[in-house]
Design goal:
The complex is a heterodimer of chains A (228) and B (133).
Chain A (H helix, E strand, L loop, with lengths): L1 H11 L10 H4 L7 H25 L2 H5 L1 H27 L6 H26 L3 H30 L4 H65 L1
Helix pairs in contact in A: 1-3, 3-5, 3-7, 5-6, 6-7, 6-8, 7-8
Chain B lengths: L1 H36 L13 E6 L5 E2 L5 E10 L6 E10 L5 E5 L2 E4 L23
Antiparallel strand pairs in B: 1-3, 2-3, 3-4, 4-5, 5-6
Classes of the chains: A mainly alpha (228), B alpha+beta (133).
Chain lengths: 228, 133
C-alpha cells in the first residue's frame, strides 16, 4: 500500500505543473468551475500524499507502542483528512466521469471516511481502543481504494473491459469490499476476544478446582507414602 | 461533352485527396502525439484506446465567417475487441493553414489542447457560414 501510495504521488506530480494540462484534466473539460476544480484536485492530491502514508504508519505496532507520537501524528492525519482530503474530494466527485453512479460511489467513500474518522477520534478520547482501531481501519480501508481502484483499472483495461464499466467496477468494488473486510475483521476479533475471555474464565474455574485437588493431594501424599 | 464527362471524376479525385490530406494531417498532429504520449498508468484518467480512426465527415470544404476553408473530421476509438465509439474527438482542419481545431463543450480549441497546452477557444472556428450570407 505504501508503494502504491508513493506511485500515485509520483504520477500526480504533473497536476502541479501550472503550464500544462494533464490528460486527467483534459478529459474533464469543459468544467463548470474550472479554477475551483483544479484547486480541489491539487489540495486532494497533496493531502492524500501526506495523510495516506501517515495513516499506514499509524497502523504499525511500533508506533502504537509509542502513544505520545501516535497521538500527535494521529491528530495531524485527522486534521488533514477532515479539513483537506474530504472537502476537496467531495468537490471533485461532482465532476467524476461515469456520472451519478460514480459520484455516489465517491460520496459514499467520503462519508465512510468522515464518519469513521470522527468516531475513531471520539473512541480514542474515551480510551476505547478496540472501537478506535475499528474506525481507523475503515478510514484506511477507504484510503486504500485509491490504490486498489487504479490497479483494477489497469487490470480491467488489460482484459479489454470497456473503460466506463471498468471505472465503475474499479470504484464500487473496493469501496464495498473494504467495508466488508473491516467489519468481518472487527467481528472476528470481537468473537476471539469473547472466546478468550470465556477461555480465561473457564481456565480460572478449572485452575481453581485443579489447584484445590493438587493442594488436597499434596496434603495427603506424605500420609499415603507412610502407609506403603 | 468530353469536358463534362471529366468533371465528376476530377471532383472525386479532389474529394479523395482532401479526405486523404485531412486524415494525414489529423494523424500527424493529433493521433501520433497522443499515441506517443500514451496514457498515464495507475491514474484515474481513461486508459488510451487500443485503436483510433479518423473519419472525414464531409467530402467538400466549408467556409467559416472569415471565408477560411475547413473540413470537419471525427476520431473514433475502440477499446479491446469492443465496438467503435464514434466521435471521441470532433474537430476541423483548415485547408490553407493546416491548423486543426477540436470541439470541447460548445467551443473549438486549437488541437494542441489535447496534448496539454493551455490554449484559448477561437470563436467562430469550424462554424460554417450560413448559405447566402
Amino acid at each position: 500500500m505504501l508503494l502504491g501510495s508513493a506511485f500515485i504521488t509520483v504520477m500526480s506530480v504533473p497536476y502541479f505543473d501550472f503550464e500544462t494540462l494533464p490528460a486527467f484534466v483534459i478529459e474533464k473539460l469543459p468544467l463548470r468551475f474550472e479554477a475551483l476544480w483544479l484547486a480541489a484536485l491539487r489540495i486532494h492530491v497533496a493531502a492524500a500524499a501526506l495523510s495516506f502514508p501517515l495513516c499506514l504508519v499509524l497502523m504499525t505496532r511500533a508506533l502504537q507502542r509509542r502513544a505520545r507520537i501516535h497521538r500527535w501524528l494521529g491528530r495531524i492525519a485527522g486534521a488533514l483528512v477532515l479539513a483537506a482530503l474530504l472537502p476537496s474530494g467531495v468537490v471533485l466527485s461532482f465532476d467524476a466521469k461515469g456520472g451519478l453512479v460514480v459520484t455516489l460511489g465517491f460520496l459514499l467513500s467520503a462519508a465512510i471516511v468522515g464518519a469513521a474518522m470522527i468516531a475513531g477520534v471520539r473512541a480514542a478520547r474515551r480510551r476505547d481502543f478496540p472501537a478506535h482501531a475499528r474506525a481507523m481501519r475503515h478510514v484506511l480501508g477507504q484510503m486504500s481504494v485509491a490504490v486498489v481502484s487504479r490497479a483494477l483499472i489497469v487490470g480491467l483495461d488489460a482484459a479489454s473491459i470497456d473503460p466506463h464499466t471498468a471505472y465503475v467496477t474499479a470504484l464500487w468494488l473496493p469501496v464495498l469490499t473494504s467495508v466488508a473486510i473491516v467489519e468481518w475483521q472487527a467481528r472476528r476479533s470481537l468473537v476471539s476476544r469473547r472466546n478468550r475471555t470465556q477461555l480465561n474464565e473457564r481456565l480460572d474455574r478449572e485452575e481453581s478446582a485443579l489447584g484445590l485437588v493438587v493442594r488436597v493431594r499434596a496434603l495427603f501424599r506424605p500420609v499415603a507414602g507412610h502407609g506403603r | 461533352m468530353c469536358v463534362l464527362s471529366f468533371v465528376p471524376s476530377l471532383a472525386t479525385a479532389d474529394d479523395s485527396s482532401l479526405v486523404a490530406w485531412t486524415q494525414q494531417r489529423v494523424g500527424t498532429v493529433i493521433l501520433k502525439p497522443l499515441a506517443e504520449r500514451g496514457g498515464s498508468r495507475f491514474s484515474r484518467s481513461r486508459p488510451p484506446p487500443h485503436e483510433r480512426r479518423v473519419r472525414v465527415t464531409q467530402s467538400t470544404l466549408s467556409s467559416d465567417k472569415q471565408g477560411r476553408e475547413f473540413i470537419p473530421f471525427s476520431v473514433d476509438v475502440r477499446f479491446g475487441a469492443g465496438e467503435w465509439q464514434r466521435d471521441d474527438i470532433v474537430g476541423c482542419a483548415y485547408r490553407a493553414s493546416g491548423n486543426l481545431f477540436v470541439k470541447v463543450g460548445e467551443a473549438y480549441f486549437p488541437a494542441a489542447l489535447l496534448l496539454g497546452k493551455k490554449v484559448e477557444a477561437l470563436p467562430g472556428a469550424c462554424e460554417a457560414r450560413a448559405a447566402g450570407s
